[in-house]
Amino acid sequence: MGERIAHLRHRRGLTQEQLAERAGVSVDVVRKLEQGRRRSARLATVNALARALDSEPSYLIGQPATFETRAEPEENAPSVLALRQAISPVADLLGGEDDPEDPPGIEQLKASLRSTEEIRRNGRMGEIGILLPPLIRDARAVVHATTGSERAAANSVLAVAYQVASVTLTGLGKEDAAFTAMERSMLAIRSCDDPGLETMAASTLSYVLTKQGRLADAERVALVRAEQIEPGFRSTPRELALWGILLLRAATASVRQEKHGAVLDLLRLAKGAAESMGRDLLLYATPFGPTNAGIATVNFLVEMERADDAVRAARSVPDLASLPPTWRARFHVDRALAYSDLDKDRASVGALMLAERDAPEWMRYHATSRRLVEDLRSRAGRRDAPVHDLADRLGLLR
């Protein structure tokens, strides 16, 4: 990270002092990062530096930029290019091409989407990269080949597939392509049969904008939609969950702007909705309820540098096993960050091991996990310390 910051700082003609002033951070932080004495920083700091350097946070943190390939045959390997081509086919600009003669039926299409969503919840990024391009092409073909209710149902599948593609591309640091996927999703939503997808599109768009470093835009997108669907006394658990998901998205953008008062207000509202629900619901591969509100609390406390409070809050999160593996893994990473801030490196590594147990492939793509492991490895005294093996499994260079 330090090398990338120094490179961009020189390109912008800034001294370390000027960069620190522009970003609103300590010059000591800039110096330590550039000298390699500090290998990671809070996401609020990363966002501030990226904004001052006119860059994306994903570039500064060295997010993985493509899919891993294992032992798959070349034709079955996941491909960023194939995903881009599915989202933005040149045929749309050149007058279109014929769709397949026998597009799948709508039930087959829905089954393919359910399978993809399950893989996504488990964090198997490579498989998502393989399955998404044909799913998007098939859904487009069904939209073109059908009318009425079938066409509306196909547009719903297409809208969700585009959103999954957007999240996947964002995880690879391709935020501009992810934004294009969201534009496509929102077009499909206009002709779909699922009113909840508009809310989920706002949530996903807020996530993409947050990763772009457009934090005020991300906060606004989530809050505007949350106001539009604000629940009442007779709201269903599903309606409460959709609203709560948006509140947590807005809080994520707020905490990275260091608007801690707004974060606590949004979290209070989200917890109220979660308590009214009684249990977590899984909507379009995204959970919300008491458990997810609990792990969000831990995340925000870590971001606000309240590590002691985060560790305490983590002990009271209910029914953690009910959440998808990637959510559990992210919770353990937040615990690891809190322990690291408290100089409890052994406990931090232990929490990371739990995260790896839940979602090993997701860990290899998750930039925060990789940065933290790199940091812990640099401080580990013994060569046989478990963190060295973990770093090797994550593919971190020595």
UniProtKB/TrEMBL annotation:
Pfam families per record: HTH_31 (PF13560)
Domain HTH cro/C1-type intervals: 5-60
SUPFAM superfamilies in alphabetical order: lambda repressor-like DNA-binding domains (SSF47413)
Gene Ontology MF term list: DNA binding
Gene3D superfamilies cross-referenced by the UniProt entry: lambda repressor-like DNA-binding domains
InterPro entries documented for this protein: Cro/C1-type_HTH, Lambda_DNA-bd_dom_sf
Protein name per Swiss-Prot or TrEMBL: Transcriptional regulator
Upper lineage: Bacteria, Bacillati, Actinomycetota, Actinomycetes, Kitasatosporales
